[in-house]
Amino acid sequence: MGSDVIQAKLVLLGDLGAGKTSIVESTIGAAFFSQVLCMDEATVKLDIWDTAGQERYHSLAPMYYRGAAAAVVVYDISSTDSYIRARKWVDELQRQGNPHLVMALVGNKVDLEEKRHVGTQEAMEYAERNGLFFIETSAKTSQNVTELFYELGKHHCDLSTETTFNYSLPDKLVKVRPHRPSGMVLHDGRCRRADSGGWAWRFCCSG
Ligand SMILES: Nc1nc2c(ncn2[C@@H]2O[C@H](COP(=O)(O)OP(=O)(O)OP(=O)(O)O)[C@@H](O)[C@H]2O)c(=O)[nH]1
User: Fold this and answer.
1) Spacing, Cα 82 to ligand 1 middle (Å)
2) Assigned CATH for 5-166
3) Which of 45, 48, 118, 137 would be 33's cystine partner, CB 3.0–4.6 Å?
4) Is the pTM for the entire model greater than 0.80?
5) What whole-number distance in Å separates Cα of residue 123 and Cα of residue 79?
6) Is the ipTM of this complex over 0.95?
7) Quick check: CB of 124 below 6 Å from ligand 1?
């Protein structure tokens, strides 16, 4: 295991009952939520903030996503309404969130395949058009739940292996457009970026 420790705040968003809390509980068995991933290259610590899906709490959400490096937007594959709501979250994050926020779209409850109302292809194409990482999970059977967090963690590590300076704990993980030239110097030299398979990530360190 690498000696680097990489820390990033991740926020969970999605409709009431989509399965946000269950996804996290099925991996780490608690409701707040620090997921430590011990990878070959580094230890990645994701501070995960769960949010309530009820509409009346909507106005609180910006408090959570504004400081986040990554957002995981969850819908229930058996509920078209929850998918519509997820897309609204994506719109809101694109309009009002950190412009470089990393977003993952998660179709949960794949164990309910016979009740599926949201097609994989439809959601995948939507995710691709919007630059989101996409995965389908089941918190009930744990299918793909670890993969979701490891996929996020892996990108952190890809970056850390290219670290060329000693940094304190990163306070932001942001996505940048893949077409930017690599090796770009960002934020007065305290940030850098790395590309990995079409996903480009950079850490901004508090310095
Ligand atoms: N079959 C099935 N049920 C699930 C799955 N994930 C969650 N559930 C159930 O869906 C219901 C809602 O799950 P929660 O995790 O509380 O959903 P949430 O998104 O956190 O809901 P709010 O906190 O109210 O916004 C619960 O009854 C869960 O047991 C899943 O993958 N499959």
Assistant:
1) 12
2) 3.40.50.300
3) 48
4) no
5) 13
6) yes
7) no
